[in-house]
Specification:
Layout (H helix, E strand, L loop, with lengths): L1 H17 L8 H42 L2 H42 L4 H34 L5 H40 L3
Amino acid sequence: MMAKWLLATMALSLPALAHADGPRGNNHGEQVQDRQELRQDRRETRDDHHDLRQLESLLARYDSARGRSARRDLLQVEDELRGYVASELNESRRELSQDKREARTSAREVRHDGYRRDDRQDHRDDVRDARQESRMLQQTRSISQELNGLYGRLDSRSLSRKRMLIADLVQLARAEQSQNRQETREDRREAREDSGWH
């Protein structure tokens, strides 16, 4: 009699034990990934804030040098701008690669977890992030190409166009900062879902 009771108890307990680590089968792995994504979000937030401050400073210095017709200062700002744009292109390529990896990972989760609603939402968010990053990279490349043809030129028309392009970079930096805030909110939501704290 005791053996039957023990077997019945074990049989009823197995389904509960199978989900003891949470609502998903690979919950620990997803929680580790969530923590990595949140750390990455914090780094990107710091970088985006620094980039925006740097660009706003470059724009203010450019305007000041242009207003004073200070050729040497204009060329100095251009040199720093060239370095910034090259660095931003590298950073954007790296972030796009990361966003594409996240989209592939979330697609695997959708297939693996039986097309759960939250997994589908995470995948849509990751695909959208990759598309936005790709657009920003293309815009930065376009600005970079146009600036390359204007560096060293100090005629009024070229100076005006360079100023507009720097202002465009400032707007891109603001948009990137906003996108990163949105991505951080989504990653926090995903971490709550994966930890079972819906």
